[in-house]
Amino acid sequence: MRLSLLWPSGTNAQVGMDDVREHRLGFLALGIVLILLGVAAMFFPFVATLATELTIGWILVFAGIAQSLHAIRLRDRIGFWPSLLSGLLTLAVGLLLLVFPMTGILSITLLVAVLFLVNGIFRLTQGLRLRPAGYWGWLVAGGILSILLGIMVIAQWPAAAIWLVGLLVGIDLMFSGWTLLWLTLLARQIGTV
Q: Coiled-coil intervals in this record (predicted)?
């Protein structure tokens, strides 16, 4: 993937950096908060895992209620029963996650392991297909790493369920925070040039 796809060039990039520079303290504060939350999630991975699982449960409950009510409102339309059943299933899964959080944590962890394996296989295959390209090695390496992570999680399952999701959330929060700090520093450097 070219860097230009990730960060626009020209006027759009300048406007974005102007916004970062103008609200530098807000970006800086948010970056620090995200880093601290990420560190907390990494030090207390079970709490972060449980919070993530419960959040997913509540989201599914509200989504299931909304889908079911929408289906009932349109009960005379084609597709009523599939829509209603889909809403009720979403609601049921959300309630199960809330009532049995440990089972939900085990299930989510197993799904993350499968996600690592499948994404790893996709990246590895893509990297091998793009072998002549200069970046194919990174895809292959990322694919192998993802496969190894998936195998590691499955080998340690169910014990990995206690820490995995919380650790991943913590890592993501830390990287998001560092990205905001980096953008703030970059905008400041560009502004002084």
A: none
What is the 8-class DSSP label of residue 133? S
- Cβ contacts of residue 14 below 8 Å, gap of 6+? none
DSSP per-residue string spanning 134-179: TTHHHHHHHHHHHHHHHHHHHHHTTGGGGTHHHHHHHHHHHHHHHH
pTM above 0.70, yes or no: no
Tell me how far apart the alpha carbons of residues 73 and 77 are, in angstroms, rounded to a whole number.
Answer: 9
Cα Rg for the chain, rounded, in angstroms?
Answer: 22
Cβ partners under 8 Å of residue 39, min gap 6: 170, 174
**79-121 pLDDT, tens per residue?**
788 888 988 998 998 999 899 998 888 888 888 888 888 888 8
Distance of CA 184 to the CA centre of its chain: 23
The pLDDT tens digits for 153-188 are 888 888 888 888 888 888 888 888 887 788 788 777
DSSP 25: H
Angle separating helix axes 101-129 and 80-99, nearest 10 degrees: 110
What is the identity of the amino acid at 95? Answer: L
